[in-house]
Design brief:
Layout lengths: L1 H7 L31 H10 L7 E5 L5 E12 L9 E5 L2 E5 L4 E9 L5 E2 H8 L14 H10 L3 H15 L3 H8 L8 H13 L1 H11 L9 H16 L4 H14 L6 H22 L9 H14 L1
Antiparallel strand pairs: 1-2, 2-5, 3-4, 4-5, 5-6
Helix pairs in contact: 5-6, 5-7, 5-9, 7-9, 8-9, 8-11, 9-10, 9-11, 10-11
């Protein structure tokens, strides 16, 4: 039916609502490491999804105590067995069966380092000692590392927090930046300075842009999201950061700021600005020479005309 409708031209195109879209993060090799605390079905899907890159893999220790990395190209899901996740259940020419949180993953095609992909039978002919029945395979540590990484604030997140204190508490950058300097790497501190000082320098322009992009202002606890948008807009307008990278970093900062529910909004607002940038700036930049709001420029002109 789908193909029939497609051929007959019955489908109606509908524009995507960017505010409801989610950002697809860049894959890393660590994400491909098999985690036995997941279900066998999920791991089998991961193995297919990560092929041809970065290829799912597991790490184990051979009888000599050497850590080995083994890529996995194919696997199958078998019924659940009541054993701890990671337990090696069976090793033979039909596969290497390992218990998971839910179900059993049967490894079928493997690739040792420096070798071509091979069947389990070919692999076991030379390296049967790598898998010992009853042994619990090393659980993936990536999930813990990823959590630790996500709790550490990025430069963009810290910049948003600093700007929030400047705008809402009237604090000075000369006071705030030394206080947060220890939270960033030495090589990243100049970036933090550039973003925060830059935002304060062109704040009226950025605030007017946000007014054009949002239906209603972000108040109260959501003010941190407003400041994060200031960070994103400043990067897009004034820094030589690729647009996709600027949006990526700012969207990811919502998680460390405990504002993950606004991830879609931040992504949608920044991408809308990229699409409509020319039209928005044509309105906002009416008085770009002074960076003052229009009401102030008009009042100043009126005062000067009365003095003439």
């Amino acid at each position: 039916m789908f193909l029939d409708h497609l051929e007959e031209g019955k489908f109606i195109a509908e524009k995507q609502d960017d505010s409801q879209s989610n950002y697809a993060e860049k894959l890393s090799k660590e994400e491909a490491k098999l985690d036995w605390s997941l279900s066998a079905a999920q791991l089998e899907r991961n193995i297919r999804a990560f092929n041809p890159w970065p290829i799912s893999f597991l790490q184990l220790t051979d009888e000599q105590g050497n850590e080995q990395t083994l890529k996995v190209y194919a696997a199958a899901v078998l019924p659940h067995v009541d054993k701890p996740a990671g337990t090696i259940l069976s090793v033979d020419k039909k596969g290497i069966q390992i218990a998971t949180k839910e179900g059993v993953l049967n490894l079928l095609q493997l690739q040792p380092a420096g070798k071509k992909p091979m069947s389990v039978q070919d692999f076991l002919n030379g390296r049967a000692d790598w898998f010992q029945v009853g042994k619990v395979s090393k659980l993936m540590v990536f999930q813990r590392k990823k959590t630790e990484k996500s709790t550490a604030l990025s430069v963009r997140a810290i910049a948003a927090q600093v700007i929030l204190q400047v705008l809402d508490q009237g604090k000075s950058l000369s006071t705030l930046l030394p206080e947060v300097q220890s939270q960033v790497k030495p090589q990243d501190f100049p970036l933090l300075q550039e973003i925060t000082f830059g935002i304060c320098r062109v704040l009226p322009r950025l605030e007017n842009i946000i007014k054009k992009l949002l239906d209603k202002p972000l108040k109260g606890k959501t003010r941190i999201v407003h400041c994060l948008l200031l960070v994103g807009l400043y990067q897009l307008l004034y820094m030589r950061v690729p647009a996709h990278a600027a949006v990526d970093e700012v969207v990811n900062a919502t998680k460390s700021l405990k504002s993950d529910s606004f991830r879609g909004l931040v992504n949608g607002v920044l991408r809308r600005f990229l699409r409509e940038q020319e039209d928005i700036l044509a309105v906002v930049d009416k008085h770009w020479q002074t960076l003052h709001p229009e009401w102030f420029v008009n009042k100043l002109k009126k005062s000067l005309s009365e003095l003439a």
